[in-house]
Amino acid sequence: MIKKLASSVGEYKKPSILAALFVALEVAMEVAIPYLMSVIVDKGIRTGDRGTVVLYGCVMVALAAASLVAGVLSARYAAVASAGFAKNLRARVFGKVQDFSFYNVDKFSTGSLITRLTTDINFVQMAFMLIIRVAVRAPMMFFVAVVMAFILNSTLALVFVGIIPVLVVALVILIRFGFPLFDKMFKMFDAMNNKVQENLTAIRVVKSFVRESHETEAFRKASEAVQKAQKRAEKLLVFGMPAFLFCMYGCMLCVLWFGGHFVINGKMSDGELSSFVVYVMQILMSLLMTAMILVNLVISKASAKRITEVLEESPDIADDDADPSLIVKEGSVRFSGVSFSYSKGDNYVLEDIDFSIAPGETVGIIGGTGSAKTSLVQLIPRLYDVQKGEVQVGGIPVKKYTLKNLRDSVAMVLQKNVLFSGSIRENLKWGKEDATEEELRAAAKTAQADDFIMSFPDGYDTELGQGGVNVSGGQKQRLCIARALLKHPKIMILDDSTSAVDTATEQKLREGLRRELSDTTVIIIAQRISSVMGADKIIVLDKGRINAIGTHAELLAGNEIYREVYESQRKGVN
Amino acid sequence: MAFKKTDAKNSGVMQKFEQPGQDKHKVQNPVRTILRILSYLKKFKFSAIFSLVGLFLVIAANVGGTYSIKVMMEITLNIRAGLASYTDLANAAGMLIGIYLVGISASFMQQRLLINLSSGIMREVRDAMFEKMERLPIRYFSERTHGEIMSCFTNDTDALRELISQALPNVISSFVSVIAMFSMMLVLSWQLALFVVVILSAMVVTVFRLGKRSGKYFMLQQASLSKVNGYIEEYIEGQKVTKVFCHEQKVKDGFTGLNDELCRNATTAASYANAVMPIMGNLSYLLYALIAIVGAYFVIGGRLGTYAAGVATLISFLQYSRQLAQPIGQAAQQINSVLVALAGAERIFALLDTPAETDQGYVTLVNAYISEDGTITESDKPTGHWAWKHPHNDGTLTYKELKGDIQFENVTFAYEENKTVLHNISLYAKPGQKIALVGSTGAGKTTITNLLTRFYDVPEGKIRYDGININKIRKDDLRRSLAMVLQDTHLFTDTVRENIRYGRLDATDEEVYAAAKLAGADFFISHLPEGYDTVLTADGKNLSQGQRQLISIARVAIADPPVLILDEATSSIDTRTERQIEQGMDSLMLGRTVFVIAHRLSTVRNADAILVIEDGKIIERGNHDALLQQKGKYYQLYMGMAELH
């Protein structure tokens, strides 16, 4: 895990190392200063030698100044390194997600991917900064100061041997028992936030059922649970500080008591004792720092794990068997014995699908909610891979094309479609980057979008908010169709893409498509019979299997499901 | 309470809404905000006072402890010189142990109480926020994104908690420590202390300058961080579209630009922030070295008393000078998080200060007996009948049976000034009638239902319910008499059973099943892995949109209201399923006044009256046949000759 993340340091290896190096220098000087003080006391003050005082004093000042420079430099390099590391990591994870197939995205869910890319990366960045600054500093300070203490007086230094294990044990206990408690607390927080989120989206429901008090009561319970969990977790941590103080004060007392005796007996000089006192502080402070990093690292461990999961996920669909020279020559589609499940297990949503579509044909797909219409068409541009059987486009299995070549020829307008923030023009150009003004308008006209676009004051330069919030549902669908048209695909798939468009406009749109896409294979998924009745053939899907294939007239005569749907939409017209 | 200047707060909120992200990290009025945070301490007086006492004791023990070091050193050196005895040393050690024990226990007490305090305050704040949120008018929610409000509940409360449990105690402790240590230094040697003041003030100036700089870059960094996160959110959500268009490389390129900018700003911000500690730390070593030289001269010159006293004083002085730098550096480092927390607290308070939905209604809904001759008497038990209880100015009470008679009289309405959505709408629905509203998105159909439920109040014109102006009816009672099925189903994380019961909390299980059967949901529910006890997740992964809609219809069925609003209720159900639940819907609608908003004209055909609405005006009204004969807009729509957006 760490190795995986660490590789994102990349070109920032140099500043990372420099940051650690300067920290080490800083520490060395910080430890040297108290030692010089002992010399001043013993050789200067005790003998009244002002020259020694000034000499060693100046060395101390010089060391402090050098330490200052080292400290500032290490701060700077650490900033460069950690911001750079975060940049690399973010770009890597984002790039990775861009390579994900639908299956990979479904597996993580969009919400969780977003958290991983935002919050989790922030945590890891902070942890990284801690590591290169404090994780070098604290242990090094500890080590050097302990060595100095032993050099000054090895007998007195044994005090640390007695007290440090106590502190370590206390720390281990705290982390060991504290972590599960914090974990529980975070779960409570999640449940509480979920309640808030739910109430935000469902505020109209809450208000119309007059359930404000009911919801508030439920929230209070969740909030109380959070408080309890929080208290339990933090009350354990509270033992940390007193335990630390106990050890520090204990050390100090021992040093003053035993050290005092040594001084009286002449086994230790006055200056040595005074610098020993400073080392006590330095050693214990560095231990405290280490503890703090450990806690921080434990917290960010979960984040690191979640990021690594994304990095380790291999895109489930790749160009492995592809021949880059193959391009889609014509728009025929063939399914032979296809079975498909989202979970890759045996929970098939599609089973034994066999059919073929000739180039240039228009095919309608009809079926109830959950009959796997969308799943079926998603197999054509290889958004998912089949488990059994084979899908062919242009007479060649889809796996043989590179994804780019395949998807450039197969345009699909998704059911849940998205426009991005930016102008209408920029959005349309997704279909064809170098599209001319004429091409844009021609596609928009075919999609019956030109009229309403031109009715906006800014026309094609109208800015769309995130998700295309400032156009109506029907307008959004038509923009999405125009965007797909610009690809000039061999196969065009419309997945319930005109549900919000009225029948009259839809009629015009279909005529436009027929005119413009006479050579293109068109596959239409629809709820409305009127949307597909003019198709060359219609596939009726029921519970993941093909129930019937035929023309409108054939199905009306011979297929019960189709007739039922038809009747349900026709009722009362006569 | 003294800080409740609602008007000023509100205008602040509006500004923020108009310029999202602009002033997001700015603190408007720090003093007032801090005072208001402190006002929460009132309820936790005990914890607050003793935690503060504990804090002082910890500081006292720390400062006193360092002083005792001086005493012990001095005694040690005096013993060697034959001027003191071991008993003196033991006494001093005893005193030191006492001081340390006080420090340890005070630290424990202080932290323990602080947990009570901070978790208690946070719970109070959260509960108040949620309660307020539930009482806010719908307008509040339509003017903000969910993310904005959500971030108030998560990020802002988190920052506030950190302020209360860490930053605030730290600032207090730093302030008191500096004063205490400085006093001790004055006592030890006023000359050396004055020397320290000069250097120290230089240190403080440097650090606070640095802090200010760092604050500026920190804001820049936050701004580009939100840009990057916004991009991530948008493109991860639209990732499937990116795939379909093979646009991965373009999207990555767009990301690189923003990511680089963030990296630059983050580097600068962190360079300043990181530098504070080393600068403080090393300046204190510089101070240490300077004091050592000057102090040594003082000792040699005998200005600090005997040799023993002098060395001991110098040593403790050096300790103090090291310790003094720490709180100052800490305070400087915490400035950013304090600012973030205060900005968050202001957003929390802005939410708390937003006026709740007001309600001057006084007509209430009561259970009632209705006798043969039509006289109504109130009952405190369910009777199956409801009546409006209408108190009058002269102190009399009248009762009117709840029937579901709705009348709009010349209603004109605008969400924003000068953007009239409804023009002079009049409509009439007799009890049991089905009224269909047909028109484009934005024509004003949903607005009509928003007014009927009093999600928004009517400034012009009147709406009467059973002849009573709905402004006189208490909102809760009004809404209890209406039920809505919306296009977007909203179910809660709970079992199917409880989700249906949401319509009427005291419904029995049998009633739940009956309602599900009525809605045509019973069949699929019993085929769920755990039937009615299947837990629904908020994002509804385990149910199809149509199934969720059926549950929400069952939820309304159990509420059994006299008036029903179906706002595109069946638009996400395929027509075949719709036909299957038609019977259920018909029986649900039977005997109720129903407003149907629909896209599919097939669902409005059998309405008693169809109102075609365009640009906030009713342009046609009549039943299906009459409208077809009229050969107007409805005819065109029905024949597919005109377009609905």
What does this 3D model show about the protein?
The complex is a heterodimer of chains A (574) and B (645). Chain A has a six-stranded mixed β-sheet. A four-stranded antiparallel β-sheet of chain A has the order 2-1-4-5, with no helix packed on it. The model of chain A has no long low-confidence stretch (mean pLDDT 86). Chain A contains 20 helices and twelve strands. With 574 residues, chain A is α/β, with parallel strands linked by helices. The longest helix of chain A has 50 residues. Chain A is elongated, with a radius of gyration of 35 Å. In chain A, helix 2 runs parallel beside helix 5, helix 6 packs antiparallel against helix 8 and helix 19 crosses helix 20. In chain A, 64% of the residues lie in helices and 10% in strands. Chain B is of the alpha/beta class and 645 residues long. Among the domains of chain B are: 330 residues, ABC transporter transmembrane region fold, CATH 1.20.1560.10; 71 residues, Rossmann fold. Helices cover 60% and strands 13% of the residues of chain B. Chain B has a six-stranded mixed β-sheet, sandwiched between helices. In chain B, strand 1 and strand 2 form a beta hairpin. The longest helix of chain B has 53 residues. The two termini of chain B are 49 Å apart. The relative contact order of chain B is 0.08. The chains are: A alpha/beta (574), B alpha/beta (645). The interface between A and B is large, with 159 and 151 residues.
